[in-house]
Amino acid sequence: MHHTLDDVITRSTELLRAKDLAGMSQLVADLPPADAARILERTDSAERAVLYRLLPKDRALDVFEQFDASVRSELVNALRDDDVVTLFAELDPDDRVELVDELPSNVAHRLMQGLSRTERELTAPMLGYAKGSVGRRMSPEYVRVHPTTTADQALAQVRAIGAGAESVYLLPITDDSRRLVGVATLADVATADPTTVVDNLSTSRPVVTADVSAEEAARSCLDHRSPAVVVVDSENRLIGILTIDQASRILEDAEDEDAARAGGTEPLRRPYLATPVLSIVRSRVVWLLVLALSAILTVQVLEIFEHALAAVVTLALFIPLLTGTGGNTGSQAATTVTRALAVGDVRPRDIGAVLFREIRVGATMGAMRGTLGFVIAGLVYDWHLGLVIGSTLLAICTLAATVGGAMPLLAKKIGVDPAVFSTPFISTFCDATGLIVYFAIAKLVLGV
Amino acid sequence: MHHTLDDVITRSTELLRAKDLAGMSQLVADLPPADAARILERTDSAERAVLYRLLPKDRALDVFEQFDASVRSELVNALRDDDVVTLFAELDPDDRVELVDELPSNVAHRLMQGLSRTERELTAPMLGYAKGSVGRRMSPEYVRVHPTTTADQALAQVRAIGAGAESVYLLPITDDSRRLVGVATLADVATADPTTVVDNLSTSRPVVTADVSAEEAARSCLDHRSPAVVVVDSENRLIGILTIDQASRILEDAEDEDAARAGGTEPLRRPYLATPVLSIVRSRVVWLLVLALSAILTVQVLEIFEHALAAVVTLALFIPLLTGTGGNTGSQAATTVTRALAVGDVRPRDIGAVLFREIRVGATMGAMRGTLGFVIAGLVYDWHLGLVIGSTLLAICTLAATVGGAMPLLAKKIGVDPAVFSTPFISTFCDATGLIVYFAIAKLVLGV
Questions:
Q1: Per residue in A189-247, pLDDT tens?
Q2: Overall average pLDDT of the A128-155 stretch
Q3: In this structure, are residues A321 and B301 in contact, taking their beta carbons and an 8 Å threshold?
């Protein structure tokens, strides 16, 4: 029952190098779907299509559902048309919608037309919700029960319809007009006395409307440790559920995006080793413009002070130290506040409290670093230079922490992804303003 | 059923400002546990203890389980001794172990002694596993079934023991000597024909040994979209399960840590607004030493080239641009590779493939930026300087991407958290080496 994925990856690398596709297909066929998908994602697009078609029919779908979104659309492009039509019909509605979002609209349209009426009627309404909303990511298949149903009857209902429902771990309770009146978990139903009415088993579980963002709904599911969140329309009528495994996948994607943006790249949306070099370049080159701006700004600022630099060349020695400190302090503050925003610990309207905090944090760190800088530069060079370095560090740290802490909140307020104001952006800002502060203080103290 | 947490937070802020603890306690009592915990986490430690004791008895425990780890230990310190003893006895074993990890060892020891024998026997073995292993975070309460049990009998067993088990969504199947022979999901059992034997319902689900890291086990649970992972000892004997909501909490904490480290801070381990300013300073000041090293390195490197700087002051203008580009390129590569490592897309032994990729990515970006730098510096200043800037950009980008991509893998190989080699570390390295490359090229081209 145990097998280490690591060994399997090593074995598959050998097989691929030997071009042994038959061996590969046998290796993959025996793996759990998640591991099979992981292995196939490491192969190139042509090999992947061949190996996928060699999978046993009943396992292919499970493996497909485990692929990253962009790998799915790549695979669909490489498969034969009739294979795609069958695959599309077999997918769960939420996976189907995700695939539609990746495909060219004419292909998506043709595939939708090819669906049976029942499946089309399940899928089409989801496509009506905005991209990124939970309405587009939920599952429209569930088992709903009437408030007067007993636990035993509910279990019978699960048994009867269960196989078709995405998840049966949460049973929405609805009245005759499909309005949500409560929620029971399968665990509570299964452990209750069989004659208990489900209305008495109803517990407080998260409910969201379909226009709420998928990320917010997913976080609410995990925050409340619920097997699913219930999705309703504006009139409180049940339209779907978002299960905890869908929720954790949504959050995983969001973390991916945040982590990438914080590091100044766009998310790859597919496994690193399966991403072409040029796509990686493209994901990182978005910041080229910001860097060009940085170039112009910092060079221009320094040009203004070229005279002072020529007079006291020693001033140049501290430039990387000072800009580095500013950039680091700013990105530390931005990281903390961005994360606090993402998990809901702060809201944009808390900006006053955040600024007050960051000013104190920045000033404290600035005082520590400034003292250190004053002493070292004073001992090695002279105390006037020490004073310049020390007070510049104090000023830069305070400024950078305040700006770094405020930026994610301002971004959120104007409706931009807070993670966009990431390291490159903040360092650019801190570089330029830090240099101005530096030379202003140097002029004042040294009179250059 | 709907209420927006945002409104509740605003209302609670007003109540706290008016020191209306009675109003606050009423507000909190009606909220779902996760939201109540969120509100209480925003209050100060003394208010929180009072409000917590005012909670209805049956809800207090649910709220406690939703607190962040450090808030829990703070609360335990603020509660009366007998309250703590009762609370400790009521906690689930995994929450109990988490609390023990936060408390001073004499307090933890006394609390463990106060447990009933049954509860102590459930908890004590978990404390024997290493910190960070799944053995310490799993739940030792579950419903296990015999291979010959029918679906109907299994449901009856769930009903009989269910209330005490942490999760009944996954039922481990064991033989007479408690060895794991399979796993069935509650969904499969509930939807199966009542007479089906559970052995026939057994599906492939992730299994880990107790010494595996909690993070790895949690990721395996979510990757396989399983309601839980089964934990066994080295002889394949069942000892616990890790449920998907425990798993997602573990991953959430790990993401927190990674996001914080990537930004050059330590994770706060409690909500931002509830963290004292000095704790925030402490979480960021860990990098003070790295920055001091950076200071010494960059200042020293520039001192070596002070003569060249004095001869051509214009060279100083480009220092922030060049070190900034190096730092950004390096942290982009590190971010991508760290993330790929975390989700299992690359392994330390893939270092060859990663280096080959990053050299090409770095060289491509370096060629683009270098050309731009060559043209702009050439037009504005002169073509010799353009050549220096252009080729330095090419060299720095290639170097930074390669080093940034390799560092997380090397860290993992020597058993260090890859996220430790974060922005501050890589910028320090890139700053110093970038400057050496810059002046070496300048000497060669300009002959200074």
A1: 988 888 999 999 888 788 999 999 999 999 989 888 888 999 999 999 999 999 988 89
A2: 92
A3: no
Q: Are B58 and B85 in contact (CB under 8 A)?
A: no
Q: How far apart are CA A282 and CA A250, in angstroms?
A: 24
- SS3 of B385, please? helix
Of the candidates B10, B73, B69, the one whose C-alpha atom is nearest the C-alpha of residue B42 is B10
User: How far apart are alpha carbons A275 and B64 in whole angstroms?
Assistant: 44
pLDDT for residue A140 is more than 70: yes
Residue among A87, A166, A185, A157 nearest A126 (CA)? A166
Q: What is the ipTM score, two decimals?
A: 0.79
Q: Is the pLDDT of residue B369 over 50?
A: yes
Which pTM value belongs to this model?
0.82
Chain B contact set for A365 (CB, 8 A): 281, 284-285, 288
Q: Output the six-digit token pair for A42.
A: 């490491």
Take residue B29 and report the two structure tokens written for it: 């009592």
User: Helix A319-342 crosses helix B423-446 at what angle (to 10 degrees)?
Assistant: 150
Distance CA A416, CA B177 (A): 58
Distance in Å, alpha carbon of B244 to nearest chain A alpha carbon: 8
- Portion 184-213 of B in contact with A at CB < 8 A: 186-187, 190-192, 194, 204, 206-207, 209
Alpha helices in A343-422 (DSSP H): 351-380, 383-413
* Cβ-contact B386, B373 below 8 angstroms: yes
Identify the bridge partners of residue B208 per DSSP, sorted by sequence position: B231
Distance CA B6, CA A349 (A): 10
d(CA B422, CA B261): 6
Average pLDDT of the residues in A15-43: 85
> Residue B164 corresponds to which tokens in the numbers above?
């005490």
> How far is the C-alpha of B318 from the C-alpha of B301, rounded, in Å?
15
Amino acid, single-letter form, for residue B37: A
CB contact under 8 A, A272 and B34: no
A122-136, A409-423, B98-112 — which is least confidently predicted?
A: A409-423
Identify the closest residue of chain A to B9 by CA–CA distance: A347
